[in-house]
């Protein structure tokens, strides 16, 4: 992914709920936005991982022929160490890096 994940913590951080509703004036709307963004990030990361791991796939997978591939293990470990999509989405939302709109509010 192209975004800088160095600023996103890998662990859970206690958040002030009043920070979450600043952009929308509604906590639940903010949570829905963060959730949808987290799903987008998760899909992107999964596609990226599957693309990298597909390079190691062989056409004839027999149980006898399965062996450890160091590069494949390192790639998997790298993706396991990455921050979870929810944490990335929350960080993006709090730093105003997420574009969102509510069509029902725009009609008013």
TrEMBL record:
The keyword Lipoprotein does not apply. It is an enzyme of class 2 (transferase). InterPro entries: Pol_omega/Rpo6/RPB6, RPB6/omega-like_sf. SMART domains: RNA_pol_Rpb6. It holds the Pfam family RNA_pol_Rpb6. SUPFAM superfamilies: RPB6/omega subunit-like. Keywords: DNA-directed RNA polymerase, Transcription. Its EC number is 2.7.7.6. It catalyses: RNA(n) + a ribonucleoside 5'-triphosphate = RNA(n+1) + diphosphate. GO terms for cellular component: DNA-directed RNA polymerase complex. It comes from the Bacteria. The keyword Transcription applies. Belongs to the RNA polymerase subunit omega family. This is DNA-directed RNA polymerase subunit omega. It comes from Sphingobacterium kyonggiense.
């Amino acid at each position: 992914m192209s975004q800088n994940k160095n600023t996103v913590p890998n662990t859970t951080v206690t958040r002030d709920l009043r920070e979450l509703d600043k952009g929308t004036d509604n906590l639940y709307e903010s949570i829905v936005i963060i959730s949808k963004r987290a799903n987008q990030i998760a899909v992107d990361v999964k596609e990226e991982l599957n693309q990298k791991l597909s390079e190691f796939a062989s056409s004839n997978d027999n149980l006898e022929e399965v062996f450890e591939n160091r590069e494949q293990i390192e790639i998997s470990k790298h993706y396991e160490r990455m921050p979870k999509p929810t944490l990335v989405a929350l960080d993006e939302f709090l730093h105003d890096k997420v574009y969102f709109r509510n069509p029902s509010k725009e009609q008013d």
